[in-house]
Amino acid sequence: MFDAHIHLNQYKDIDRQIEQWQQAGIEGVAAVSTDLRSSYETLSLKQRYPDFIFAAIGFHPEQPLPSSRDITEWENLLRRERHLISAIGEVGLPYYTLHEQQHDYLEHYIAFLDEMMCISKRESLPIILHAVHSHTPIAYDLLTRHHIPKAHFHWLKAAPSVVKQITDSGYYISVTPEACYRERDQDLIRHVPLKQLLTETDGPWPFSGPFQNKATSPIFIEDVIKKIAEVKGKDIMAVQKQCKQNMLALFEPSALNAAGSEENERTI
Ligand SMILES: [Zn+2]
């Protein structure tokens, strides 16, 4: 089982936590960053757990735009540590905080996201997007304009017609533990082909329903997988296996090829 989107640098006592997660069957996580500082932190975690973490660096959109000084330093970090990096993220467009700002601010965020897409394209790195509701189509248009081959719409909330455009383009969409108790997310599962579905927690973000008052961890993924299996009428193990393949196809296609050949060898 994999967690395709977690803010790993925000966890305390990480060594003990990762050990517990691994014991519970978690094979890996995609650790995203929200600013320059967390980008450094994510990469240092990646160095400590190279086989458990896919590292993504970026600037979260639900906050003021980064300074040009931070962007320059971040680009230097990307160049220097490129070998440690699996994706650009999380980046995207503000939605929840936009009302607090002047509305023409959105244009600046669109321009910044455009810059991030150029980098994603130039570096051949997938891009992890926070772009929900009415802002999903804006991010989608940018992706297609830049011909970005690999993108992940994390915790997507969008109309079925937009979901269809995204999946028709081969991009990935993830669901969170919210799918276990919220009809809207179960509906999303119905609309996304299993081959493009990922599981995530966005931890340490807290959840309600059966997860009320529980500290969010990738261990919740087991319940998300069960819910996907139930909604799609599939076998739990088959869903788990497909979600793993999706995760590797997005973040580490070479591992997928290796896993594929290993399996072939075994069947021979
Ligand atoms: Zn996030």
TrEMBL record:
Pfam families in the record: TatD_DNase
CDD domains: TatD_DNAse
Residues forming coiled coils: none
Entry keyword annotation includes Thylakoid: no
Matches recorded under InterPro entries: DNase_TatD-rel_CS, Metal_Hydrolase, TatD-like
Keyword Transit peptide attributed: no
Source taxon at top rank: Bacteria
Keywords carried by this UniProt record: Hydrolase, Metal-binding
Gene Ontology molecular functions: hydrolase activity
UniProt family annotation: Belongs to the metallo-dependent hydrolases superfamily. TatD-type hydrolase family.
Name recorded for this polypeptide: TatD family hydrolase
Species of origin: Ectobacillus funiculus
Organism ancestry: Bacteria, Bacillati, Bacillota, Bacilli, Bacillales
